[in-house]
Write a structure and sequence with these properties.
Layout (H helix, E strand, L loop, with lengths): L16 H6 L8 H8 L8 H9 L7 H4 L28 E5 L2 E4 L27 H12 L6 E4 L9 H12 L6 E6 L1 H4 L6 H7 L5 E6 L8 H12 L4 E7 L7 H13 L2 E8 L13 H11 L10 E6 L4 E4 L5 E3 L4 E5 L5 E5 L10 H8 L1
Parallel strand pairs: 2-3, 3-4, 4-5, 5-6, 6-7, 7-8
Antiparallel strand pairs: 1-2, 8-9, 10-11, 11-12
Helix pairs in contact: 6-8
Length: 371
Amino acid sequence: MGSDTTARTIKAPVRTASDLVAAGLIEPEHAAGISRVLDEFALAITPSVAETIASADPSGGVARQFVPTLAEAVETADELTDPIGDDAHSPIKGIVHRYPDRVLLKPVHVCPVYCRFCFRRERVGPGGEALTQAELSAALDYIRANPEIWEVILSGGDPLILSPRRLADIRDSLEVIDHVRVVRIHSRVPVVDPVRVTQDLVEALRRPKPTYVVIHANHADEFTGAARSACARLADAGIPLLSQSVLLRGVNDEPEALARLLRTFVENRIKPYYLHHCDLARGTGHFRMSIAEGQELMRALRGRISGLCQPTYVLDIPGGHGKVPIGPSFLEAGGQDRLEVRDVSGIPHSYCEAEVRTDGQDRRRESTRRG
């Protein structure tokens, strides 16, 4: 777009193709095609994100995550409406119980922004299903009735779009369930809508049982001054912060870009947690890399940036079979009791793994001493 976009102040959320044109985020001649994309998948870009995009590269790593393109109209045969199998593990509305000791509680299905690669893009958006009070009560009853649930993860939608009062009510309800020991909240709000991170919201999250906030960001340029301040308000309140990101072509698919993102997390007291392989959601093929490419990226980062900056690279297996780590292996069988270990430069080294008895004594050493 033209240079006038850098001076444009954007005061309202971007929700339509016309809004995108007015904000300088797409050319007018693309509006009709983008409108057809938006008939399928919701659009929302907060003013702060829109200004970040307009003042930087309109085709860069931030823009690519939020500004719709005609590539979303292209679907492949392997793409799914429910790519991680939430439905197969949803015993009642608002609950996903895939793993024995934790559940997702989804009180709301709206977000301040809609990622163009979202794995729940079929379900979120204006008019998306939010839990009524009766449905929320039923979801909480499910948690109460299942004592194996140790952790509750608030997801959605974005739970931090709720008012502090509603968040406090949910947090209080979970606080008095004895077997629930940890609450986790997955959110983009601190980065994409930092004005929502008020002191009231912070107080709504602070309870005797720990609350972890997992912040989703995919490019270092998302961390504006306001976003950094919002994250600091949470960290200063003693709320542990983790990160989750999605590996995205054209966003963070180069070692330098990914390293910069991960270092930015750590600099803001956010421990990198998950790097997700992009899910098979409809119309997202232009974002997806191969697993081999992702493994090569992770291999490039190992030994080059701090261990504090290393996330776990994971694949959410389609069909609801859960997440598994898919990072590169540096270890291979080398024959007999030897292993081949490759260092961060790819150079192989032999490692001898002695056979160990159940009493902990090394058989080889024992036989050597006898000899």
